[in-house]
Structures are given as structure tokens and as C-alpha cells.
Sequence to fold (171 residues):
Amino acid sequence: MTSALNFGNPEHLLPPSWRSQVQQWLSEDTPSFDWAGFVVGEEYRDAKLLGKRKGVLAGKPFVDEIFKQLNCTIEWHVKEGESFEPIKHIATVRGAVRYLLLGERVALNVLSRCSGIASMSRWFLDTSRDAGFKGIIAGTRKTTPVEKYGMIVGGIDAHRNDLSSMVMLKE
Fold:
């Protein structure tokens, strides 16, 4: 199967604003006080990210950036675009417990969303190919960078990224 992963790092497809979007997600998750972080403190620990359902991993750049902004490190055990079976140890994150907790929900949300889209994209692609379809399956422009990234990692064509990509007239 040919996909963006065959040609280079799909992170390079993301718009320049994606890192500031990650900062916004973290800010939205803790708009005022971080009581959990206050209670658990600065002790360094490891946290495991587990894949609980069969799928295709997508969203590593977003998760890397979430934990980078929180001064945590992450070691991946599954490659971007790789299929995995449950229960799979996807990654290990190391950092202060307060930052692990702060990043956990945001990271799991984006990883679940992006991997879910990649998994469904791969399923549609494989199913259509098995049925003899030789055309291109393309996603819509009307999605977020996370969703579009998941489609690309899953093997679906990006179609057009914005209104300046091509002219499209509809009835």
C-alpha cells in the first residue's frame, strides 16, 4: 500500500500552527487550578500508554508535543501507521507525576481520535482494494489537522487541504 508514510515524515504535512493548538488544548484542560498536580507533586514516574482495541497507530507528533511542552519524555513501542492488536504497550512516558496527569487526558483523546480515524481509513482502503476498486479514496477538507492527519496515516488521500489548493464548484 502506498501512503504518505512511504515518502517521509507525515508530521511535515501539518500546518505551522499545530504546536500552538497543542498548547491551547493543555490550557483548556486546566483553565485555573491543577488540584491533582498539587496533590501528587514532582516525583518522577513512568506511565504506560496501552492500545486496548485493534487499530492503526496515528497521532504521534501531537502526543510528542503534548509531553514535550510538559517536560516529559516518551518512548514509542509502535511505529506511526503500524497496526497493533490489543492489549499492546504503545508507549512509555516519563516525567513528574503532576505533568503525566496533566497530559494524560489530552494525549489519550488526540491519540484515540487520530488512531480511530487511521484505523477506519485503513479498513475502507483495504476493503475497497479487496473488492477490486482501483480509484482514490479521499477525505474532505472540512476536518481538523488531527483528523486529516489520521486519514493520511491510514492511507486515504487528503484531496485538498484548503480553499487555495484547487477550484471546486458545486451545484
Remarks:
- The chain has five helices and five strands.
